[in-house]
Amino acid sequence: MSNTRIAFIGAGNMAASLIGGLRAKGLEAQQIRASDPGADTRARVSAEHGIETFADNAQAIEGVDVVVLAVKPQAMKAVCESLRPSLKPHQLVVSIAAGITCASMNTWLGAQPIVRCMPNTPALLRKGVSGLYATTEVTAAQRDQAQELLSAVGIALWLEHEQQLDAVTAVSGSGPAYFFLLIESMTAAGVKLGLPHEVAEQLAEQTALGAAQMAVASDVDAAELRRRVTSPGGTTQAAIESFQAGGFEALVEKALGAAAHRSAEMAEQLGK
User: Fold this and answer.
1) Is the pLDDT of residue 2 over 90?
2) What is the CATH number of domain 6-167?
């Protein structure tokens, strides 16, 4: 990425996180530019990262190697169609918009090398994870560019089939909300058991953080970690058996299936 020039179309939170991650990894401010319709957004991103910003998308992509589409899915068709006359065949298009397929983007943009990504909100803390899919037009060097771009805010994992992005959306794209719900529920349960709300909340949050860090650092899977902390006849076993009696695993499977189905449904609706 040392000589790569990147333009962000849309300068919201996710784009700003990627820009910050790239700057932290050593990219010079002059290698990055962004466009956004909001004057306040442009001013903030320019002030925070020292990059040039534009109100006009066509100006922003002039002379760059990578064009990152960081706009809302509902705006993608209009943005792509407006960019089409200005795009050059060699420019890599990276989309971080949920639910917009490569086929739809090809229809709106023309034949461009496209990498479609599904990041998640922990990218705001550079703790994100992204699923990536590349069309056949994407070169090995462009794959490396996309890998480094998304790795600036976490880890990036390549997928063989575009349809797998629906599953990525279900597991990690929407996933932070599931853990927030668990923290919320554990906090409420702790309060009912007699703890002050602030204490219960901190216990739940720190436990979630510690468990996640243990899972990431461990050389065994989550099932084995669970077994290791579940003493026979103990308190943890009582809780786990209660979860399982209530159909916890089946409920998680059903919930993620609903998210994946909705992701595919949105792609159909937004791609027209």
Assistant:
1) no
2) 3.40.50.720
